[in-house]
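Final report, closing paragraph on structural work. Over the funding period we assembled a curated collection of sequence-structure pairs, and we close with a single example.
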Amino acid sequence: DFLCISLVNGFIQLRYNLGDKTVILQTFQKVHANGNTWYSLKAGRAGNEGYLDLDGINVTQKASPGMHALDTHTDFFVGGVSSLNLVNSMAVENEPTSFTGCIREIVINNRELKLTVTDPKGGANIGDCDGTVCGYTVCKNNGTCQVENSGFSCSCPREWIGNTCEQSIHCSQNRCGSQALCIPQPASFSYTCVCALGWSGKYCDSKIKFFIAKFVGNSYIKYTDPYYGKRDLQYSRISLNFTTNQTEGLIVWMGKGEDEDNDFLAIGLANGTLKVVINLGERISVPLIHSKYSICCDETWHFVTVVQNQTCIKVYLDEELIIFEDIDPQRKYTALNYGGICYFGGFEIGRKVNIVTTGLFQKEFIGKIKDVVLFQDSKKIQLMKAEGYNVYNGNYGN
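Its predicted structure, as stored:
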């Protein structure tokens, strides 16, 4: 399998092969070789449907039946390769040549690659395109960088201040408390405080404790399993109680959630019914949906347990076995290598659920969660000791 972006006769090409056939997309417009113009390029695939976007002009290859997962298991190369033997002949047109020009701000699956001396695994014959202390990300939020004898200075847009235009004017005098995040509200010339786990109040200055976590949207808890290194990952288990009045939401995501290589076990709601999704390493997510009856909007507590015995998955809802399925009878991958990370309710501020889960779940969870138990542990995990934001005391009332 491969995915390759290249410059061919002045046009940008995207070529990919998921194991059955090679798909080629090409931009409508040419790239001018004047060395002075920066272009914004977006390319990728969703399943076996590819897309290519150059400065806002989009080309999409309609999907056809076939493979849906890109399985490369190789290093990622930018601008060239260490050996032409690594290049699939179908990935390029004619003889492959290395790229000559400048590349910046590479984002793969919502993660930016750091094009520095120390971060990549290797490289050769790479120089600094900017050549000054300004670079391209020194001034934030569309600030303009100016080189000076002492270094640089940033000219900031009207609503941003700071040496690198990193701070909103609406948050410059904020009263947000311990570890809270200040979120500017330009429309009202004000701000709101997003409280760290264990704090509440308008300015996040009131200390709280709870055993029932209340998620209000744009909320999350990130729990790191201290016993992960001792777990038998071929036999995983998680159970919890939840209540909600919403039809959509991610309840829990066992996994690092960083890229498509990460294993995960996820529980959530889709169209008002329970949805469980497992990925043990094939980059092919297996959704298990129970549609017997709706479990949203009734304001009652529901008890869910998911048991993974190698590739056999059992799902219990309110102590009734509702799903029993072998997701891979070939037993190609049998362990849930989730990295010891469990997200509850959503992901870090700014990371959208529908993007991180590639559309498996649409929204953050709104509701309450309690009594979370991992594997066969004798104690419930202490959510209060985890990392999180915008989570409140759900012990009482609504």
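The two ends are 51 Å apart (CA to CA). The chain has one helix and 28 strands. We thank the funder for supporting this effort.
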